[in-house]
Design goal:
Elements (H helix, E strand, L loop, with lengths): L6 E2 L4 E2 L29 E2 L3 E7 L5 E5 L2 H5 L3 H4 L10 H11 L8 E5 L2 E10 L2 E8 L5 H19 L4 H16 L3 E7 L5 E8 L9 E3 L6 H9 L2 E4 L7 E4 L22 H9 L4 E9 L2 E10 L7 H23 L3 H21 L2 H5 L14 E6 L2 E6 L4 H14 L4 E4 L18 E8 L4 E7 L2 E8 L6 E2 L5 E2 L6 E9 L5 H57 L1 H16 L3 H30 L9 E4 H11 L1 H7 L2 E6 L3 E4 L1 H17 L8 E9 L2 E8 L6 H4 L20 H11 L3 E7 L3 E9 L5
Parallel strand pairs: 11-21, 26-28
Antiparallel strand pairs: 1-2, 3-13, 4-5, 4-8, 5-13, 6-7, 7-8, 9-10, 9-15, 10-11, 12-14, 14-15, 16-17, 16-20, 18-19, 19-20, 21-24, 22-23, 25-27, 28-29, 29-31, 30-31
């Protein structure tokens, strides 16, 4: 097919209309939409058969081809609207009913309609059954035997071939013999869907296209999709007058019926004109699918109209499938001898790396080096923030740019191309040394890669006519090109392909190199750990203690400072002697408490850090009173009621930790109070199961522990918005409780309040 019509000038692109297609009603195909022509709703069929559209539910015939009477001796207008059962004998209807039941009927089938035998092709299209009939042609046993022997002989021939070219030639010759066509082409698609004739068999009546290329626009995307779904496509006579499907619009749906998988659907008129321009009158094609993907086509042309029977088409389809299996087998085969040589070299390289105890020296030795495991001519390694180039490579800055592109744009662990400029446009500057690239990711985070380069090879591609030059006729409409004469193009920017052996051996090398690197790092780390083991343990203890002290100091001194700031604000609002005396008295108490906290910290810091933190008798009432004084401003502002129930009066613990824990619980209770009620904070202590328990209970905002419980003690985690909330207190409290060998428990309900309880093993009870 040819669906791309565009005339290029120096500075602009001119477009031209295309004549309205007779395949459609009220549908215009022009440059803006010809590459997406809706071939699935073509409303005409080829004349060598008939078509019925049957409602799957009611079995009423809703659409029919106008040539029905040629085959069934019944007028189309008579059959429309009738139930299928009314038009055939009971025996014929029973047979048809069995064929129509499966969701995916098998075609072709042999049926009888009004006593006439037909090959029947059935498929479902949404809620419609498309039934097509083609005149039955008997195939003599001698002819069937001939085709079977042809297929058997071809399979034997293919089974001993290990190269694509002779296999494709054998397939082309078999088709020419079986179909009695004038030209058979084995066509392969490239990654851009351009096609190349890789093998050909022909008579003298048609010229050769062997080695010629055809642009992707000749078989546009929707046509390629059809080739995947429908493997055989025949046009017995490109000059035959198409037959309309009536009515064009289905009376039930009001839209054309989708007949994309029809056996008889009329081809695109653009395609028909294209085929006529090639000088042929009949065509048939067989899809080549490898692992379910469209690999290529068997495309057959004949100078005169010719009809290929169902029997021949079936054999042709089997040949295409056999050839596809051979292609798959060849793709999976390797050059074992070459791979074994690469493998031995790779093993020697790894030994060399181990002997040198240096990855770069081992890989880039002049006598035995990394280039000897591939057909590449250059390599690069970026490792440990150092770039090493070896052989013929792009410049240092150009390789760095490749690494940046790989890091930012490529998502695969291995990137392989023979045309680097398709991915990196700036690569055209160094295509002579690096058109081909294999890049293996070591660490994307560190931008570490192992790369291999192949140089550009100049490739001459022969096209069947200029693929970019449509024809403008006197009718001012663009048409498919008239000339398919040899047209040469020099392809630049491509290297030799990377073989499967090269791709595998480079990945194996990378795996071994990474293993050596990890082993070296592990050895170094083990040595370092032995040297620093004792010092590390000591430093960890000291650092942990110093970190705790720093957090305690910054956290516990914040509240007294806030109280002082509040008292200052209290005085400045009403600066009289009475308020001044009150503020100064409170500031003095807070100052004394701050001094005691600082003294306690100094005592601890003066103690040897490799010893236990000092444990003293801590009077809980005194600690709580100190916190009440430090938090006086907040308590006054919220009018909080703080209640004590201390069944255990004192505990043997580090005083600074007890102060910090209670400070965090009490300050949180004040900070997250409910504005709907007076804050009540109850502080309890009791003895149970040989443990001292201290709890702080509030009636504040509470929390949803199902949502927040897993991150409650996380660093910088807050659960209600407050201006001064840091998300540090609970994290610090958990560290301190764990350090003391205790445990912490939380009970909370949104809108009800929260209870924090810490428990410590009993040392001494007062």
């Amino acid at each position: 097919m040819f669906h791309v019509y565009q005339k290029h000038s120096m500075n602009r692109s001119e477009t031209y209309p295309v004549k309205s297609m007779q395949n459609y009603k009220d549908h215009q195909v022009d440059l803006s939409n010809c590459d997406s022509e809706p071939i699935h709703i073509i409303g005409r069929i080829q004349p060598h058969g008939f078509l019925l559209v049957i409602d799957a539910t009611t079995q009423k015939i809703e659409q029919v081809s106008q040539n029905l009477q040629t085959f069934l001796e019944i007028a189309p207008d008579v059959i429309l609207g009738k139930n299928l059962q009314e038009l055939v004998t009971p025996e014929e209807y029973a047979t048809l009913l069995d064929l129509l039941q499966p969701a995916q009927p098998v075609s072709p089938q042999l049926i009888s309609w009004q006593g006439h035998p037909f090959f029947c092709f059935i498929h479902q299209s949404e809620n419609k059954i498309i039934l097509e009939g083609e005149s039955y042609t008997a195939s003599p046993d001698q002819e069937k035997l001939k085709y079977n022997n042809l297929l058997s002989g071809l399979n034997q021939r293919l089974s001993v071939l290990d190269n694509l070219q002779p296999a494709a030639e054998a397939v082309a010759e078999a088709y020419l013999t079986m179909l009695n066509y004038d030209r058979v082409e084995v066509i392969q698609f490239d990654p851009d869907w351009n096609s190349e004739v890789i093998a050909e068999a022909r008579t003298a009546r048609l010229n050769s296209y062997l080695g010629h290329h055809f642009p992707a626009s000749d078989i546009p995307a929707q046509a390629r999709d059809l080739l995947v779904k429908k493997h055989i496509r025949q046009i017995p006579n490109v000059h035959a007058k198409a037959v309309d499907i009536i009515p064009y619009y289905n009376p039930t749906t009001g839209a054309p019926t989708n007949i994309i998988q029809s056996e008889l659907r009329n081809p695109s008129e653009i395609h028909l004109e294209y085929v006529k321009n090639m000088g042929v009158a009949a065509t048939i094609s067989f899809s080549i699918l490898v692992k379910g993907k469209l690999w290529g086509l068997i495309s057959c042309h004949n100078v005169a109209p010719i009809f290929i029977t169902v029997w021949q088409r079936q054999i042709g389809d089997l040949i295409a499938k056999s050839f596809a299996n051979i292609i798959q087998s060849m793709q999976e085969k390797r050059n074992v001898q070459q791979y074994n040589q690469f493998r031995r070299t790779e093993e020697m390289l790894i030994k060399q790396v181990n002997n040198y105890r240096d990855i770069r020296k081992g890989l880039f030795n002049p006598e035995l080096n990394i280039l000897q495991i591939t057909e590449s001519t250059g390599a690069a390694l970026f490792l440990d923030n150092e770039l090493t180039l070896f052989g013929n490579t792009p410049a240092y800055q150009e390789v760095e740019a490749i690494i940046e592109w790989l890091t930012e744009q490529n998502t695969d662990r291995i990137f392989c191309t023979r045309e680097l400029t398709r991915s990196i446009h700036s690569a055209s500057a160094y295509r002579k040394v690096a058109s081909g690239l294999i890049a293996l990711e070591i660490s994307r985070y560190n931008k570490e890669y192992l790369m291999f380069f192949k140089p550009e090879i100049k490739e001459t591609r022969i096209w069947a006519g200029n693929p970019e030059k449509p024809t403008l006729h006197q009718d001012n409409y663009l048409h498919p090109r008239l000339s398919f004469a040899k047209w040469e193009e020099v392809i630049k920017g491509k290297s030799l392909p990377w073989t499967l052996n090269e791709q595998e051996i480079t990945q194996l090398l990378l795996k071994d190199v990474v293993a050596i690197r990890l082993r070296n790092q592990a050895t170094q780390m083990e040595t370092l750990n032995k040297e620093l083991h004792v010092a590390t343990e000591t430093l960890q203890v000291k650092n942990k203690q110093l970190e705790d002290f720093a957090h305690i100091m910054s956290h516990n001194l914040r509240s007294p400072l806030v109280t002082i700031d509040g008292l200052h604000e209290f005085y400045t609002e009403e600066p009289n002697p009475e308020n001044a005396a009150f503020a100064m008295e409170r500031i003095k108490l807070v100052s004394i408490n701050m001094a005691e906290t600082i003294d306690d910290l100094n005592v601890i810091l003066k103690t040897r850090l490799d010893q236990q933190i000092p444990v003293t008798k801590v009077l809980l009432a005194e600690v709580i009173e100190k916190e009440i004084q430090n938090l006086a401003a907040v308590i006054a502002q919220t009018q909080a009621d703080i209640q004590l129930d201390l069944q255990v009066a004192a505990v043997m613990l580090p005083k600074i930790y007890v102060e910090s824990i209670l400070h965090n619980f009490i300050s949180n209770a004040l900070k997250y109070y409910s504005p709907n009620r007076t804050p009540i904070i109850v502080i309890r202590s009791w003895l149970e199961q040989n443990q001292v328990h201290i709890s702080v209970i509030d009636n504040g905002l509470g929390m949803d522990l199902k949502k927040m419980g897993h991150k409650l003690f996380g660093l910088y985690k807050t659960f209600h918005w407050k201006e001064n909330a840091k998300g540090l207190g609970l994290y610090l409290t958990k560290l301190q409780v764990d350090a003391l060998g205790g445990s912490i428990k939380v009970v909370s309900e949104p809108g009800q309040g929260t209870t924090f309880t810490v428990s410590f093993p009993v040392v001494e009870v007062y």
